[in-house]
Amino acid sequence: MVDPTDGFTPVPLHQSNFEVQKPYDVPQNQRYSHINGVHKLWVYSTDKAHTTTSHTAPRTEIRIRGCDYSSGVWQFEGYGYVPSGTTGVSIMQVFGATHRATTLMVRVYDGSLTNYRSPALVSDTYNRWFRLNVIHDADAGMVKIYIDGDLKYEGPDDGCKSHCFKFGVYEQNDSSNYMESRWKEIKVFKK
């Protein structure tokens, strides 16, 4: 099996690179914790948006600052965990696109990881750690999704001039009332 990070250079990350976006009317510690290297993010379908002017769905996400890009080949790597019951939620995204807000969205529906609503990438992901690698070749306009080292998706991006990585929970369609994901060993690479 080939390691998707082969040939990439790590980008140094610090806690200051992790900007938490959470419902604007709730203290951060009521939707996010970082204990023993594990980021735990949760949100309720009845929560408000992340700003008073946003018309988007509830979220508690980390936007990785200092790694925005418009060209080159960039990669997100992290170990994710989704407890059973969480569904209808984006857990990772490549933000920035021409015809919508995102180039890629890894979502959870009934324990399956999907790219947007489909295709299903892998099933039975509840209650276990999985390794997620997302590679975005902005120059070629292509994205790849690896789960546990296996290539599960390759396809075109949706253009745009600026991108960034986000992870956590962001409500989508057919969501559960409570949505949670946990993340550890977050890394960004580039070529």
From TrEMBL:
User: Where in the numbering of this chain does the Alginate lyase domain appear?
Assistant: 16-189
InterPro entries, A to Z: Alginate_lyase_2, ConA-like_dom_sf
Protein name, per record: Citrate-binding protein
- Please state the gene responsible for encoding this protein: CBP_1
